[in-house]
Amino acid sequence: MIERGLLIVLSGPSGVGKGTVRKAIFSKDDVDFEYSISMTTRKPREGEVDGVDYFFKSKEEFKSLIEKDKFIEWAEYVGNYYGTPVDYVEQCLSQGKDVFLEIEVQGALQVKNKFPEGVFIFLAPPSLSELKKRITTRGTETADLINNRMTVAKEEIEMMDAYDYVVENDEVDLACSRIQSIVVAEHCKRTRIREKYQRMLEVE
Q: Which intervals hold domain Guanylate kinase-like (predicted)?
């Protein structure tokens, strides 16, 4: 019997560096996660590739998939839709693979309702001033949109109680190490491995 994989959900406010941390984790040789690529209706940022960073869809295409119940979660955020396709995730978990999701806070809370056994990690900024600096440095948002993102970010930080762990993204390498340590610890949890040893005892 294949041990079911872990669903690892990395979430946090816009601009905190979720994508940067996720890419750094996946660049490591000792990481063997399956990355579940999210869908979005926002325009690609410079350097982003369709089918690698996101599946970029039109709003019409996205709404059609919502009607067909093809998402684990989906959310509208600052005028755009984001969602996690369900089929790929469930297939990987049943094959014993650990699946890594990098999603917005609204979406993470939806996933928790459907996959309460998942590992939910909140990526937090060192400070609100640092978060605003990171958003501003992108150079892709207007002043109004930056203020809007900061208002939403404060609301999202207040929602960290819904998560299992909080990792501060002060330095990318440190954040990656903390996340990897969390995953190792989760695989060692008694509640996850007890069934395996019960079967072993029954055979003996």
A: 5-184
Q: What domain range includes position 148?
A: 7-36+98-203
Q: How remote is the C-alpha of 78 from its chain's centroid? A: 18
Domain count, the chain: 1
**Residues annotated in the binding site for ATP, as ranges?**
12-19
Q: 13 near 105, Cβ under 8 Å?
A: yes
**What distance in Å separates the CA atoms of residue 109 and residue 4, rounded to the nearest whole number?**
21
Q: Model-level pTM?
A: 0.80
100, β-bridge pairs: 8, 35
Q: What is the pLDDT of residues 76-93, one digit of tens each?
A: 888 999 988 888 888 889
> Do the Cβ atoms of 200 and 3 come closer than 8 Å?
no
> What CATH number corresponds to the domain at position 131?
3.40.50.300
Q: Which residues contact 81 (CB under 8 A, 6 or more apart)?
A: 39, 40, 41, 59, 62, 63, 74, 75
